[in-house]
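=== RUN LOG ===
request id: a7f3
mode: sequence -> structure
chains: 1
length: 177
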Amino acid sequence: MTELFRSAIGCVQEAGWTYEPAPSTGGGIPASLRTASETVIHWVSSFSLLSSSDETVWFLSRDDYSAGAEGAFAWNEWEQLSIQAATTDDEADAVSRFWKHHVPVLLSVRDGYEYLAVRDDGAVVHGAEPEFEEAVVVFSQFEDLLRYTTTRPARPVHVVDRLLFGATSSADTTPSG
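=== RESULT ===
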């Protein structure tokens, strides 16, 4: 585990998150992670559980992406909900196209359904119900999310503070970093 991973995990633990280390057994990369960057694969492989104290926000672990993974929500739950809500084949195709280029890394049910995902180009996006695919870039790279988690700079990204640290704000700002 890299120092950046350890620092990010330590910071969310200080905020009350639950952490369980990943089992030492490796295994192949789940098909759902084949388009993810090496950094994302290493991140999701660095823990078996990383969730808020109230268990309403969690980072997906490598096992969550495996076929038949157990849990209340599938790693691609928001995609499935959008496809079910689609009223035409074109809408369903647009949903599938969006998610083909985004890998969810964090899910939240705290204040409605939300997520953070990593786009093919490495950008981290935030989306929320009812239109999950109307995502906004919050960081230009996944590593920026982890660095932000460890430093919590003076210029906050309110949506991330709210998801990770429970901080509230009158408006979520989402810089495109």
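=== NOTES ===
The chain has one domain: 3-165.
Residues 3-165 form one domain.
=== END ===
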